[in-house]
Write a structure and sequence with these properties.
Number of strands: 0
Largest sheet: none
Structural class: mainly alpha
Number of helices: 5
């Protein structure tokens, strides 16, 4: 059985958009952008030349982020497919399992770069919430 051919690709695309949009909210002034920037030592540029360069690079960063969200959603969709998950609770649990694996790698990177637990929580939290939501949607959308 080819797992990829059995995926609900509309659900995968919708979940990717939801995951990506969550990031836009998560890393916005509404939620965590200030704490995230502080935690990573990022400052907003004050000169127009640096801002223009930043705006020019933004589409590349957004397309890479969207692509990574798509890969994560496909992986979770495959896991949900092979486990025959069809209820929201099990979908949430599989999202938590996927988030755990992602959080461990983020945690290792943050440990070696001496980032704070707060910064780790913001970074890993985004993926945890995104994967849990994705797991729920994928498990109930046949």
């Amino acid at each position: 059985m080819n797992t990829l051919s059995h995926l609900n690709w509309l659900a995968v695309i919708v979940c990717t958009i939801v995951y990506f949009a969550l990031g836009a909210l998560w890393f916005s002034p509404v939620l965590f952008v200030k704490a995230w920037m502080d935690g990573h030592g990022i400052t907003m540029p004050t000169d127009e030349e640096t801002r223009a360069k930043m705006r020019k690079e933004m589409p590349k960063y957004m397309s890479v982020t969207f692509s990574v969200c798509l890969i994560a959603v496909i992986a979770l969709a495959c896991l949900i497919s092979v486990t025959h998950t069809d209820n929201w609770m099990m979908g949430a649990k599989l999202g938590i399992i996927a988030a755990y694996f992602g959080a461990t790698t983020i945690g290792l990177s943050h440990m070696h770069t001496k980032k704070s637990f707060k910064t780790f929580s913001i970074d890993a939290g985004y993926h945890a919430v995104g994967l849990i939501i994705t797991g729920i949607i994928l498990s109930i959308w046949h």
